[in-house]
Amino acid sequence: MKNSLWSLPRGLVLGLALVGAFSISAQGNEAWGIDLRGQASLEGRWFSQDPLSPDQHSENLSFSIAPEFYQDWMGGDFSLTLSPFLRLDAGDDERTHADLREAFFLYYGYAFEIRAGLRQVFWGVAESQHLVDIINQTDQVENPDGEDKLGQPMVELTIPSSYGTLELSLLPGFRERTFAGVEGRFGGVEVEDGTYESDAEEWRLDWAARWSHFLGPMDFGVTHFQGTSREPLLSGSGGPGDFKLTPYYPVIDQTGVDVQATLGGWLLKFEGIRRAGFGQPGAEQTYTAVVGGFEYTLIGLGGTVYDLGLISEVHYDDRGDNATTPFEEDLFLGARLVLNDVQSTECLAGVIIDADS
Asked: What angle do CA 210, 131, 309 make, to 5 degrees?
């Protein structure tokens, strides 16, 4: 992303998070059950290079809590899930934030399921970039890697059958991407309220559909999304000391495919999208992006109970240097160490290499 206005600082970033989990269950008669679980964490970050602004920091401490409340009725035919999230950050007022990650009702019918409320939906199989994952907005103030998402208002109908599973979603309401503040190390620039291609702005009714199935060792899905892009285009204005970024959210059509094949210790993965309508007004474009690779797991590493997964993925975006993500032509190499303990401890580390530079 050589022409991007939004890039991460160079240098080493070290982070440490101490995470604690909690779980409480209460079971009454057969008609209902209550389950409360979640996690709390204390996180520290250290940056090897000095900040660009005296308002920023080289060390940072924050605390987060993410409980989850679940209750069902009538043998599980009806249920309610609530998942609030809160972070208190010592260095960035914007990163101190709260959100309802999920708050939805679920009804299990005879041949269908209906979910209504705020939800998080994940699509995709790749490790280093989730191209087809488009329903939820990125909570970028929480982390710059795109893994954390905001809850999306939606109504979803799921129809399972012997021919695969069909998911149809109406998305009434758009949420703007969050950004680190001027005091945040991954920020430093004021970000104004977003502008929209749609006259309805954040109240445009978007929709999405996914069909998924399996064939032998292969699981695959076909998706389509029509609505306001979750990825904004950023334009800058002002000069030194008064520079601001303004997000612009165009209306797009995106068709995606994801495939994963399990062959012994091998996981073969592929995601591809074709997106139309993405761009500034009068400069909309259609482009294709793909990511594919493998993960090979060494089971019982060195005679222990530990497993080690070796990961390699290749990225390609036909926009080249004009891509709005860092993945125009890149190679990801990583490893996942799984301890197979009661706490499900694992560590994932990797590096992304630009093929041009």
From this structure: 105
